[in-house]
Amino acid sequence: MLSPVNVSLESLNLVTLAPMLIAVVGALSILVIDFFKSNLDKTLYVMVSLLFLLLDLGAVIDSAGFFMENGTMLGFFDVMLIDGLAILSQIIIVGASMLFIPLALTSKRFHEFSYPEFFALFLFMIAGFQFMVASDSLILIFIGLETASLALYTLIALHNRSKSFEAAVKYFTMGALAAGFYAMGSMIFYAITGSVEINQIAAVLQADNYSNIGYVLIAVVFMLASFGFKLSLVPFHTWTPDVYEGSSAALAGYMSIVPKIAGFIVVMRLFEFLIHSGVIWLEVVLYASVVITMTAANIWALVQSDVKRMLAYSSISHAGFVMAAILIGTTQSNSALFLYWIVFAFTNLGAFTMLWVSRAKNLPAGQSSDHSFEKFSGMIHTAPMTATVMGLFMLSLAGLPPFGVFWGKIYMIGSAVSAGYTVLALIMALNSAIAGYYYIKLIVYMFMKDPVNPGDYMINASNSLKTIIGVAVIFTIFSIVAINPLLEVITAFVYNSGY
Questions:
Q1: Are 89 and 19 in contact (CB under 8 A)?
Q2: What pTM did the predictor assign?
Q3: Which one of 67, 271, 328, 410 is most buried, by most CB atoms within 10 A?
Q4: 3-class SS of residue 420
Q5: DSSP codes joined into one string, 129-157
Q6: Is pLDDT above 70 for 126?
Q7: Strands (E), 388-462
């Protein structure tokens, strides 16, 4: 007869679950409030969401202090893993979410913000992303991935336009395919190692000297395809422009930041030990993926006539650029990944939000899109502040000095040179130059062309929206002088995590 196993709460170390549980409790609280009192003003749900996000961020920062003193924490039957990567990525996830959610106050035009379910789904999505980055268990990562993805599909559809439904269906279809690939890859890793924990998988494969290299190859192909969809790497990127176009501009900007940082962390945990073990074919495949993603996305962005689709393709290119950190696999490159994504998060979310600000009341004759380059013609005359702020974001995204994204690119290229990837560094520099063209193209339209439809901008510039854009502008400018302190903090967390 089996004796009962006593599990103490202390051994579970439930503090590792605190940030995710706060987000989940917040989502359930919103649903309970709506159950007892429906049709409340959306301002209440925004404030409740911000409150729980602030508590979530506080719990993450508390974990950061414990980590710097005591090192990596394991919890809940050792499936939770709180290290520097988990902490930094959760700060980005929650921080970007705190910037996004007040946008619900900006306009009555977008009816999805009137549904309490929108805010509940949003908090469930955040919890899913946090589970992804705070575990090395393939099962828990999958649960977090699907929790976040299912919530995000619904958030897109709630926009309630024909393109939104199409975007949600496309994203759901691609997400289901990616989930299938992930499940197959995880199954193969479990079959050849007997474990679903990435650290244990690495230890078993190294102990066996990769005797099952054929099966490892198949598992990695499935995993690379799965996260290729999530990170929109070429050739798995095809859903990205259509989904971004069908989403609200602000949600598209959010999607270009938060889901991808969660994907990068999982890929970093899963692939870097394989690269360090000398699996040459994986290095070749990742090398090709990085170069093709950067280059092809930039070429596609060059020929776009719609600013929103241009920014969608540029986000694909940025993802390819940052994916180089996984290939390089050094502490310097991993630190550069976080630095790059932090400065990119503020700038890109700000740029997408500006599309929301500058939308026109009525589309000019011959224009089928609300975000065509022509619509921005002469904006310096019709809405000078809008043009100036948008120009600032474009210069930063282009990677021109001294703005934040420039330093992210410089450190990333420097890490490639330091690791001996000189050719890759040259390709990255060349792609940065190419990207500058389509960002500056928008600046040319705004500052050097005559207005197409004077006086038809800034119809959505409420105080809350101006505040969010102001925060993005301030950080974009402030990052110029804060890069070194920020990089030192990031490097300390990454180094102490063993990456």
A1: no
A2: 0.90
A3: 328
A4: coil
A5: HHHHHTB-BHHHHHHHHHHHHHHHHHHHH
A6: yes
A7: none
Going from the C-alpha of 269 to that of each of 159, 195, 219, the distances in angstroms are 35, 15, 15
Radius of gyration (Cα) for the chain, nearest Å?
22
d(CA 318, CA 348) in angstroms, rounded, equals: 10
Over range 184-198, report the average pLDDT: 90
Per DSSP, the residues of 168-216 read HHHHHHHHHHHHHHHHHHHHHHHHHHS--BHHHHHHHHHHTTTTTHHHH
Parallel, antiparallel, or unpaired: how do β-strands 73-75 and 80-82 relate? antiparallel
Residue with tokens 């920062």: 61
Tokens of 236: 């798995």
User: Whole-angstrom Cα distance, residue 319 to residue 323?
Assistant: 6
Helix pair angle (307-328, 258-276), 10° resolution: 30
The alpha carbon torsion through 413, 419, 421, 424 (nearest 10 deg) reads -30
Cis peptide before 235 (omega within 30 of 0): yes
d(CA 94, CA 111): 24
Tokens of 22: 């706060």
Structure tokens at 65: 């202090």
Q: Indicate the helix (H) or strand (E) that contains 111.
A: none
